[in-house]
Amino acid sequence: MIPLLLWILSSHFPWHADGAQEITASVLFVLASITDGVDGYLARKRKQITTMGMLLDPLADKIMVTSALVALVLYNPDVVKVWIVVIIIGREFLISGLRSIASTEGFTIEASDLGKLKTVVQIVCVVSAFLAHRWTEWHFGLLIVPVRWVAIAAIYFTLLVSTISVIDYFVGFWKKIDHASKDSRKKSFVLSRNKKSANAPVSTP
Prior knowledge:
This protein is mainly α. The chain is built from six helices and two strands. Strands 1-2 form a two-stranded antiparallel sheet. A hairpin with a 2-residue loop joins β1 and β2.
């Protein structure tokens, strides 16, 4: 869906009138997010979690969000600022790096509640930024939905949650890597003592 989303946001998309471009991009992004969630749910429920799935699922999610945010820098620069996107994408690189190190050390970093909240907020952020390209606000009788302000609030809230969640991930990583290092030192100490005991001369009566 990612190439299709980028095509919809480009000047090559044939339908630009009446917000067709913004609505189509929003619907496609929401559908992609739903399928990502359903895929993970079914894999856990049916116990069909695979190593390849553990690699591709978060990778596809990150590429989808990153592609949308980078496209929005050009598509709606008044709402989505370059420096914000750089921080959010940098956060994704840092988390991926921590998970890679954790994997080599033999443990995993599970997604926290903050990480899950960040995902939901990112969806709201991207969709509202799409819609804010066309509309400033929606009027439903007496109800007024400030689309532009919702998009601005969502992008800064995404920035805040992303920053807090990466600190939370790093603290969890540090605790586990410190614990893994202590276990490794203990094993080395035990092995060295056993080796010395095995090489010790045996006294005969």
